[in-house]
């Protein structure tokens, strides 16, 4: 390996609709690029084995665990983080559903859970309870016992998220 | 007006949903150094040498600190007084060195390059063997000093009164220095009472080490200030607690330490001063801000989980009067550090929510080469409930009575003598059990297909009763700011806002909660033991009442109406019943806070010491189906019936009870921190340690009842821990009903269920 | 957890990637969902990563055979209707059983096959379907029969300087159907055992069967005793025990060897039953 290649790489991402260019080490994980380089700290880190889903973001509209994607791999893609779900201080319908139906407690799993919900409803606008639980199996929540989250997803579906 | 009692969103929901909440890991002060730990590979060893050179040569690595580099001023037998191993490694995963670097990546590179040279010793892991007089010791160098301020808190919350000294007879069993105890509770003649019972059942039960698994790993950040003081931002349950403990460890005045509690990404009892001593010491050593947030693997390896137990229990009962007597011996693995060990409390907790005529209950805490013991939601509860509630079911079966009928007959009521010797506080065990008998899920249990079972169990959490204080300020805009030193662990700020809004008479949007900053907040206890709403909630109510009185006095002069004839409704001060003559709170606030204020600002104070507990009783009902061919257990349905005193916010109450139920399912079926015979952790990541995911658990039905407390605000009781006091028992009874035989070891994994179903 | 330093570049073509693999310290990265976790734990530390993610190897071509580009994600496989139509339901079901939504969006079939993780789902389906692994090397392309492909834990017939370019699934005879059954580790979600069965039913009788088993041992394998029992109309789970007997079965303190042997036989039996039911016109 030459110093040339391990040196900083230029990566251009469209993050929440804005084009951002970063010069980073190739080993930088997407989640670290978002949090440390772009100060988008809404995306969380809850594990180191790709299991918890706290780091979930959308890449070109599909959900990914940003702790398991190198930022260089995402070069040229469009990334949506929790900061890009609503607009400014306005909550999007999916967030409003979580708010009204107690889909969160400590909030640490919440950004990932919301983005996993966006993916779920994009793929299936009217999931039943089993489909909701299956679709969110990549996201661990330790606080809610999931009942509030399932209620929130149902409410979001009823509000037309994903249609 | 009533905000209290209505289902409303959390006040922090918007920020959390927008990703705007700043957790500990999101803070990044100038000059920040990132810490990463070098963890012990041996379970028990002497450290000969720590070789730092290679690590220090890595670009970006600033320092490699070992115990000698931390300016500690004292030693003590608690984990928090030994942030890095001092010469002796007592568990695998114990922090040995702390690498500080300019970036997280460089810190990790540094950790890889540190070499720790050790001489290994026998690892002490087996509880029965460890207490034998000839056992090797888990700690070669015994550290003197007292446990303080930690275990005592939960021990008290769990129900032990004045520490009951062990009667001389109890010391009969010769034990090694690994054993702490016996702790013994005795009343009447248990042997005679058991002999005189119509039926007696007994068993030995084993439970596993279980991790709190808050989704945000532990972390803290220490910033040295120019005046020599240190500000610690911490993902902690107790800002004042941390301040006191780190000041003591480093021999500095508490006034030189400011602790600011960061929003918690879950804690469940596990976040008490584990990281703070490390970052404080490191910041003092290098004079720069230091942040350490554990990775998940580090948190599994070096956290403070809930400890495993071996419980021997024997119960007796009669058909007519219910439970009679019990005898128990509990070995509680407290690991290498007993910071939060419940050995003193489990002999009381094992009595459950019941009245007994005689008992002989003892326990030992056992020091081993595993992690230190932390607190985890209802500490001790899931373990004792697994044993007690299975045997209560077996006894009911033997006596030929309905399991809830037996529990109903035996439920303790106010004034009955508790196992700690104190009379029971008012307790609604009977009401909860009666309500459970009516629950559709319980009624279904007679008519189930093969391989399905419904189980029930009951439990109680006494609740902490720490004194607290709070203030309430009326702001210039007519809003109010409540200041508390308590950390919001379970949505308490939302309940506080409701209490304040209703008490003052302003909309909830006009209430701000400022919290957990030791520089400015009135003193508050750590958030734990289900005592925050109970105590701080009442302090806040008193502070707000005080502020309101001050406002009405002032308004009375201004409006020329007697203060007693004024009310505050929806932010308006008005003569009682005359909405059109109201003037806004802001109107008066402006006069006491504006530049040309004419009267002193309004500042209410509230102080409260609950005195007595208000125990919360819960019944859980679980419905499972097993696959006898594979032993897999599917939890089909689940219900929680609990006395909450008063649901300040029904949505939040439901969420707490649902979360507790699912954590109970985790305890029951999946979770176990396993070590091999050398003390190596086998299940140290989510690859091996299974927490329940959405697709493994059912919806949890919550049916709470409200038997008001005479002490808590608006009648509320502490609820979050009672929510795990029955689950392992209900699941075990459900599995037993489905399998046809009993499993006496947690977790009830598929191989264990398969073997039980096929009696292998 | 952050990987050790490495050099990185994007491959511009299959030939370019193959050429880059001449460096013994280089590794290709596809979805990265096996490699990056290992790099984070520093269990893998390649000197150079060759990113093949941008190569045109994604997609499912449904013709005389079904040809799946190696970069096709598990999610796309799981949703492809071509498999059920051909009686290859098991292939899609293996993909659907992988991890969770996010993992299925990222992970690729080529990466999964090349990685040779004995705990992965895909091999069961590939074996049942008698798939061929198409690989590209310095000397051009060749195809490897699945029965000769998996050779041990993280060890396959793939040459050091070869790339998986596609998986080829021949279409089974009319009257065929298949099914995948697994029992997952409740922690990792990986299969403790997974079995895929493909059967052909003619005149009410099973005339052909292939059974692939994964998860239980170091190498995914064909359950030939269970296949024979199926053809003979004998109890499959009993026969499957013989298949397991010859295997070096994984066991640990959570899921011991005896238990895993047992559930492997159960799962094989269930896969066969469901495949037969499907072939006979049930739509399970
Ligand atoms: C949380 C989690 C859960 C998972 N659960 C499961 C599960 O339940 N079942 C399961 O089967 N899998 C599971 N996986 C693994 C997943 O299926 C991976 O996606 C897959 O194993 C590898 O595909 P990849 O594209 O990510 O490969 P990569 O990680 O990119 O590569 C893996 C290896 O294969 C090599 N490689 C990749 N592509 C090629 C190619 N075309 N030619 C030659 N070599 C190549 C790489 O050099 C590397 O050595 C899980 C992964 C994660 C992170
Ligand atoms: S941080 Fe846990 S999956 Fe990414
Ligand atoms: S809300 Fe705390 S982990 Fe989900």
Short structural description:
The complex is a heterotrimer of chains A (163), B (760) and C (284). Chain A is of the alpha+beta class and 163 residues long.
List the helices and strands and how they pair.
The complex is a heterotrimer of chains A (163), B (760) and C (284).
Chain A: H1 3-6, E1 9-15, E2 18-24, H2 30-37, E3 56-59, E4 62-65, E5 78-80, H3 93-100, H4 110-123, H5 129-135, H6 147-158
Parallel strand pairs in A: 1-5
Antiparallel strand pairs in A: 1-2, 3-4, 3-5
Chain B: H1 13-18, E1 33-39, E2 45-51, H2 53-56, E3 61-65, E4 88-89, E5 95-101, H3 104-113, E6 115-120, H4 127-131, H5 151-158, E7 179-187, H6 190-195, E8 199-207, E9 219-224, E10 230-234, H7 239-250, E11 257-261, H8 276-286, E12 290-293, H9 296-302, E13 309-318, E14 322-335, H10 346-349, E15 358-367, H11 381-399, H12 403-410, H13 429-437, H14 440-443, E16 452-461, E17 468-474, E18 480-484, H15 492-504, E19 511-515, H16 532-559, E20 566-569, E21 572-575, E22 583-584, H17 585-593, E23 603-608, E24 616-626, E25 633-643, H18 650-670, E26 700-705, H19 727-739, H20 750-757
Parallel strand pairs in B: 1-12, 10-11, 14-15, 18-19, 25-26
Antiparallel strand pairs in B: 1-5, 2-4, 2-6, 3-5, 7-15, 8-13, 9-10, 9-12, 13-14, 16-24, 17-18, 17-23, 20-21, 21-22, 24-25
Helix pairs in contact in B: 7-8, 11-12, 11-19, 12-13, 15-16, 18-19
Chain C: E1 7-10, H1 14-20, E2 26-29, H2 35-40, E3 48-51, E4 60-62, E5 65-69, H3 74-79, H4 81-85, H5 89-97, H6 101-106, H7 109-115, H8 122-128, E6 132-137, E7 140-145, E8 150-152, E9 155-156, E10 163-170, E11 176-184, E12 191-202, E13 205-214, E14 221-222, H9 224-232, H10 236-245, H11 257-279
Parallel strand pairs in C: 1-3, 2-3
Antiparallel strand pairs in C: 4-5, 5-10, 6-7, 6-10, 8-9, 11-12, 12-13, 13-14
Helix pairs in contact in C: 5-8, 9-10, 10-11
Bound molecules: flavin-adenine dinucleotide and FE2/S2 (inorganic) cluster (FES) (2 copies).
Walk me through what this model shows:
The complex is a heterotrimer of chains A (163), B (760) and C (284). With 163 residues, chain A is an alpha+beta fold. In chain A, 33% of the residues lie in helices and 15% in strands. Chain A has two domains: 3-83, Ubiquitin-like (UB roll) (Roll), CATH 3.10.20.30; 93-158, Orthogonal Bundle (DNA polymerase, domain 1). Chain A contains six helices and five strands, in the order αββαβββαααα. The termini of chain A are far apart. In chain B, the strands form six sheets. In chain B, strands 3-5-1-12-9-10-11 form a seven-stranded mixed beta sheet, sandwiched between helices. A five-stranded mixed beta sheet of chain B has the order 7-15-14-13-8. In chain B, helix 12 runs antiparallel to helix 13 (429-437) and helix 18 (650-670) crosses helix 19 (727-739). By secondary structure, chain B is an alpha+beta fold. Chain B contains 20 helices and 26 strands. Chain B has three domains: 13-122 and 218-293, Aldehyde oxidase/xanthine dehydrogenase, a/b hammerhead (Aldehyde Oxidoreductase, domain 3, Alpha-Beta Complex), CATH 3.90.1170; 309-463 and 613-757, Aldehyde Oxidoreductase, domain 4, CATH 3.30.365; 468-608, Aldehyde Oxidoreductase, domain 4. In chain B, helix 18 links the parallel strand 25 and strand 26 (700-705). Chain C has three domains: 7-51, Uridine Diphospho-n-acetylenolpyruvylglucosamine Reductase, domain 2 (2-Layer Sandwich); 60-170, Uridine Diphospho-n-acetylenolpyruvylglucosamine Reductase, domain 3; 176-279, CO dehydrogenase flavoprotein, C-terminal domain (Enolase-like, domain 1), CATH 3.30.390.50. Chain C contains eleven helices and 14 strands. Chain C has helices at residues 14-20, 35-40, 74-79, 81-85, 89-97, 101-106, 109-115, 122-128, 224-232, 236-245, 257-279, and strands at residues 7-10, 26-29, 48-51, 60-62, 65-69, 132-137, 140-145, 150-152, 155-156, 163-170, 176-184, 191-202, 205-214, 221-222. In chain C, the strands form four sheets. Chain C has a five-stranded antiparallel beta sheet, sandwiched between helices. In chain C, strand 4 (60-62) and strand 5 form a beta hairpin. In chain C, helix 5 (89-97) runs antiparallel to helix 8 (122-128), helix 9 runs antiparallel to helix 10 (236-245) and helix 10 crosses helix 11. At the A-B interface, helix 2, helix 3, helix 4, helix 5 and helix 6 of A face helix 1 and helix 18 of B. One FE2/S2 (inorganic) cluster binds at residues 104-110, 141-144 of chain A.
């Amino acid at each position: 390996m030459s110093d040339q290649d391990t040196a900083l790489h230029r990566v251009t991402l469209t993050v929440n609709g804005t084009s951002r260019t970063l010069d980073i080490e190739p080993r930088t994980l997407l989640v670290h690029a978002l949090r440390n380089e772009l100060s988008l700290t809404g995306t969380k880190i809850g594990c180191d084995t790709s299991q918890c889903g706290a780091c979930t973001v959308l890449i070109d509209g599909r959900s990914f665990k940003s702790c398991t994607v190198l930022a260089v791999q995402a070069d040229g893609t469009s990334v949506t983080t929790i900061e890009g779900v609503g607009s400014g201080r306005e909550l999007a319908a999916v967030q409003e559903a979580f708010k009204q139906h107690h889909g969160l407690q400590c909030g640490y799993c919440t950004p990932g859970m919301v983005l996993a919900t966006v993916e779920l409803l994009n793929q299936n606008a009217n999931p039943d309870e089993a489909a909701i639980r299956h679709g969110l199996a990549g996201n661990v929540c330790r606080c809610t016992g999931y009942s509030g989250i399932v209620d929130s997803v149902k409410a979001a579906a009823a509000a037309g998220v994903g249609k | 007006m009533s905000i209290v009692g209505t289902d409303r969103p959390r006040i922090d929901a918007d920020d959390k949903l927008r990703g705007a909440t700043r957790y500990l890991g999101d803070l990044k002060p100038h000059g920040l150094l990132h810490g990463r730990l070098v963890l012990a590979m041996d379970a028990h060893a002497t450290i000969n040498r720590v070789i730092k050179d290679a690590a220090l040569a890595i670009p970006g690595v600033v320092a490699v600190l070992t115990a000698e580099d931390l300016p500690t001023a004292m030693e003590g037998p608690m984990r928090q007084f030994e942030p890095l191993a001092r010469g002796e490694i007592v568990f695998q995963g114990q922090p040995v060195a702390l690498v500080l670097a300019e970036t997280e990546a460089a810190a990790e590179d540094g950790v890889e390059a540190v070499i720790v040279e050790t001489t290994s010793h026998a690892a002490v892991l087996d509880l029965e063997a460890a207490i034998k007089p000839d056992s090797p010791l888990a700690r070669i160098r015994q550290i003197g000093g007292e446990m303080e301020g930690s275990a005592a808190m939960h021990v008290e919350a769990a129900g032990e009164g004045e520490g009951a000294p062990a009667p001389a007879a109890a010391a009969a069993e010769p034990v090694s220095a690994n054993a702490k105890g016996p702790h013994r509770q005795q009343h009447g003649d248990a042997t005679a009472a058991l002999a005189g019972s119509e039926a007696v059942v007994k068993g030995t039960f084993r439970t596993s080490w279980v991790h709190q698994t808050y989704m945000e790993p532990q972390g803290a950040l220490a910033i040295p200030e120019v005046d020599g003081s240190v500000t610690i931002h911490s993902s902690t349950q107790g800002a004042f607690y941390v301040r006191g403990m780190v000041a003591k460890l480093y021999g500095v005045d508490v006034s030189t330490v400011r602790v600011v509690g960061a929003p918690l990404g879950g804690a469940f009892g596990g976040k008490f001063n584990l990281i703070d001593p490390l970052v404080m010491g490191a910041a003092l050593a290098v004079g720069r801000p230091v942040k350490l947030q554990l990775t998940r693997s580090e948190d599994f390896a070096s956290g403070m989980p809930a400890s495993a137990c071996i419980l021997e229990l024997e119960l007796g009962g009669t058909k007519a009067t219910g439970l009679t007597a019990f005898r128990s011996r509990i070995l509680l693995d407290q690991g290498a550090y007993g910071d939060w060990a419940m050995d003193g409390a489990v002999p009381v907790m094992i009595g459950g929510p019941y009245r007994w005529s005689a008992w002989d209950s003892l326990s030992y805490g056992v020091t081993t080469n595993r992690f230190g013991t932390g607190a985890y939601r209802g500490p001790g509860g899931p373990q004792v409930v697994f044993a007690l509630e299975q045997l209560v079911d077996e006894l009911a079966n033997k006596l030929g009575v309905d399991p809830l009928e037996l529990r109903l007959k035996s439920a303790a009521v106010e004034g009955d003598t508790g196992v700690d010797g104190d009379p029971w506080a008012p307790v609604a065990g009977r009401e909860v059990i009666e309500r459970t008998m009516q629950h559709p899920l319980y009624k279904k249990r007679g008519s189930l297909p093969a391989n399905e079972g419904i189980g029930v169990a009951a439990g109680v959490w006494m609740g902490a009763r720490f004194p607290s204080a709070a203030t309430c300020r009326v702001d210039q805009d007519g809003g109010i700011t409540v200041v508390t030193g308590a950390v919001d662990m379970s949505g308490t700020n939302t309940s506080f806002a409701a209490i304040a809004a209703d008490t003052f008479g302003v909309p909830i949007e006009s209430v701000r909660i400022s919290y957990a900053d030791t520089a400015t907040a009135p003193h508050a206890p750590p958030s734990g033991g289900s005592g925050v709403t109970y105590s701080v909630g009442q302090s806040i109510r008193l502070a707000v009442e005080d502020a309101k009185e001050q406002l009405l006095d002032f308004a009375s002069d201004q409006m020329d109406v007697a203060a007693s004839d004024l009310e505050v409704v929806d932010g308006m001060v008005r003569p009682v019943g005359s909405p059109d003559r109201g003037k806004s709170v802001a109107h008066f606030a402006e006069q006491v806070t504006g530049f040309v204020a004419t009267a002193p600002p309004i500042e209410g104070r509230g102080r409260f010491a609950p005195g007595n507990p208000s125990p919360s009783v819960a019944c859980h009902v679980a419905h499972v189906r097993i696959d006898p061919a594979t032993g897999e257990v599917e939890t089909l349905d689940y219900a929680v019936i609990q006395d909450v005193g008063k649901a300040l916010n029904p949505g939040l109450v439901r969420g707490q009870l649902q979360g507790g139920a699912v954590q109970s399912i985790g305890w029951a079926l999946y979770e176990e921190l396993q070590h091999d015979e050398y003390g190596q952790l086998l299940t140290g990541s989510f690859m091996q340690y299974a927490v329940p995911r959405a697709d493994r658990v059912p919806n949890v039905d919550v049916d709470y009842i409200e038997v008001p407390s005479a002490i808590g605000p608006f009648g509320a009781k502490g609820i979050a821990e009672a929510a795990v006091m029955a689950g392992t028992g209900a699941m075990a009874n459900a599995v037993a009903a489905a399998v046809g035989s009993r499993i006496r070891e947690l977790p009830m994994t598929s191989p264990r269920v398969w073997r039980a179903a096929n009696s292998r | 957890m952050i990987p050790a330093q490495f050099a990185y570049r994007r491959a511009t073509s299959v030939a370019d990637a193959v050429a880059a693999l001449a460096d013994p310290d280089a590794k290709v990265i596809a979805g990265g969902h096996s490699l990056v976790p290992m790099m984070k734990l520093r269990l893998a530390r390649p000197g150079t990563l060759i990113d093949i993610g941008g190569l045109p190897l994604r997609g499912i071509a449904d013709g005389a055979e079904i040809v799946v580009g190696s970069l096709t994600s598990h999610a796309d496989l799981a949703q492809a209707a071509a498999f059920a139509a051909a009686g290859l339901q098991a292939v899609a079901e293996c993909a659907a059983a992988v991890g969770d939504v996010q993992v299925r969006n990222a992970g690729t079939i080529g990466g999964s096959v090349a990685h040779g993780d004995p705990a992965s789902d895909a091999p069961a389906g590939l074996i049942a379907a008698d798939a061929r692994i198409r690989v590209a090397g310095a000397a051009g392309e060749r195809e490897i029969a699945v029965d000769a492909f998996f050779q041990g834990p993280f060890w396959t017939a793939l040459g050091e300087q070869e790339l998986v370019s596609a998986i080829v699934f021949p279409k089974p005879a009319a009257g065929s159907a298949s099914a995948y059954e697994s029992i997952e580790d409740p922690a990792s979600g990986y299969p403790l055992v997974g079995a895929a069965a493909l059967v052909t039913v003619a005149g009410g009788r099973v005339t052909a069967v292939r059974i692939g088993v994964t998860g239980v041992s170091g190498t995914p394998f064909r359950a030939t005793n269970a296949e024979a029992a199926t053809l003979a109309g004998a109890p499959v789970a009993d026969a499957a025990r013989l298949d397991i007997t010859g295997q070096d079965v994984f066991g640990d303190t959570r899921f011991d060897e005896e238990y895993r042997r047992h559930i492997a036989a159960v799962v094989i039996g269930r896969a066969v039953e469901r495949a037969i039911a499907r072939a006979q016109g049930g739509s399970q």
